[in-house]
UniProtKB/TrEMBL annotation:
NCBIfam families reported in the protein's UniProt record: RND_mfp
Protein name: RND family efflux transporter MFP subunit
Superkingdom of origin: Bacteria
GO MF, one example: efflux transmembrane transporter activity
Protein's organism: Rhodothalassium salexigens DSM 2132
Coiled coil start-end: 116-181
Any one annotated GO CC term: efflux pump complex
Region forming the signal peptide: 1-30
């Protein structure tokens, strides 16, 4: 019995071992087949990229140009055509100042007066002397007429006639001198009134009543109203292109355009700035009016000859040695493209676009935006982007 039991255990153990060995071999065979199948499918996937893995990119077609136009701005200042410090022609005591700062005045309007008491007294004295001289002249003429009659009758000498004639001439000269002196006093009396030389606005009142001023000392500063001028310094090469009467738009500090016409260009170059002064007349219709001393800018086009093309600034990434990188698209079969890059030099930036030069050829597709999402060698599908 014991021997039979031992034999059955050995037989069962042998069967179990055989079963396990068979299962292991089958598993290895299945694994081998499965792995081979995966390797074959992987090769096919590598040859045919999945469309869902292709990145769409916005593109722009390169259009090569022989140059670009940039805008140069030059700063100037608005000025009244005339700004005058008014003063009296003669010294004296100021008795009245009739206007204050900001007052609007008309040409010929009296603005201030000097004390004229001494001048009026001088005029009265001269008038009295003139009256006396004229009376003496009347008497001398009558005397001269009588002497002429006596000389003709032989009752007096020629010497007496000469004396009366000389007296008449002297009195004539005296009356003429007194007339001239009275005219001079009249001028001084008129000059004792400070008058506006043109229509304008009082910019500053410099003197009050009671002040004794010297001849020519400033009393009021008057700014001419009406047309204003703007004087802008421009380089000579730009000035040579300007034509008198041409219309321009000057831009003030608030960004408002002031219509203006070119009046003249100075013939001399200023040494410090190497510019010439262009004078513009700002139109009367400008409202609100420009202010004296206000800064304005003049924009002029400047053509730069340089082969290159325009591209959006967002299409550029910084590279080494001061160059920039732009990504172009190379055909990769069908409607797919592969990313490559070119180095370009940035020549000019204007707003959100840049003018660059490099070896990129005309008609090449470049990535217009989203450059952070692409890398050289990557497959992409282009999407046209309108020129910017």
């Amino acid at each position: 019995m014991r021997a039979r039991s031992r034999s059955m255990k050995v037989a069962l153990t042998a069967m179990a071992v055989a079963t396990l060995v068979g299962l292991g071999a089958a598993g290895k065979l299945a694994d081998g087949l499965s792995g081979q199948g995966h390797r074959d499918l992987g090769g096919v996937a590598a040859k045919v990229p999945a469309r869902e893995n292709v990145l769409p990119v916005a593109t722009r077609t390169v259009a090569i140009q022989d140059g670009y136009t940039l805008s140069r701005t030059f700063t100037g200042r608005v000025a009244a055509r005339r700004l005058t410090d008014l003063g009296f022609d003669r010294g004296g005591s100021v008795v009245s100042v009739l206007v204050d700062d900001g007052a609007v005045v008309a040409e010929g309007q009296v603005l201030a007066r000097l004390d004229t008491d001494r001048l009026r007294a001088e005029r009265r004295r001269l008038e009295a002397e003139l009256t006396e001289a004229r009376a003496n002249l009347v008497l001398a003429r009558k005397t001269n007429a009588r002497i002429e009659t006596l000389v003709a009758q032989g009752h007096t000498s020629e010497q007496r006639l000469d004396e009366t004639q000389a007296q008449v001439a002297a009195l004539k000269a005296r009356t003429a001198r007194l007339d001239a002196q009275l005219a001079s006093v009249a001028v001084d009396l008129d000059k004792a009134q400070l008058k506006a030389p043109f229509d304008g606005t009082v910019q500053r009142r410099l003197v009050d009543e009671g002040r004794v001023v010297e001849a020519g000392a400033p009393v009021l500063q008057v700014l001419e109203t009406g047309d204003l001028e703007a004087r802008v310094g421009v380089p000579l090469r730009f000035a040579r292109r300007l034509r008198d009467g041409a219309a321009f738009a000057l831009i003030n500090d608030q960004g408002r355009a002031l219509p203006a016409d070119l009046q003249s260009v100075a013939p001399a170059v200023r040494g410090a700035t190497r510019t010439v002064t262009a004078t513009f007349r700002i139109a009367d219709a400008t409202s609100p009016p420009a202010a004296d001393g206000e800064l304005v800018t003049l924009s002029l086009d400047d053509r730069v000859e340089a082969t290159g093309f325009w591209t959006p600034l967002r299409a550029l990434t910084a590279d080494v040695r001061g160059l920039w990188r732009i990504y172009r698209l190379e055909p990769a079969g069908g409607d797919l493209y592969r990313i490559a890059f070119e180095n370009v030099q940035l020549l000019y930036a204007q707003g959100d676009r840049a003018y660059v030069s490099g070896t990129v050829e005309d008609g090449v597709l470049t990535v217009a935006e989203g450059v952070a999402k692409v890398a050289p060698g990557q497959l992409v599908a282009p999407v046209d982007l309108a020129d910017s």
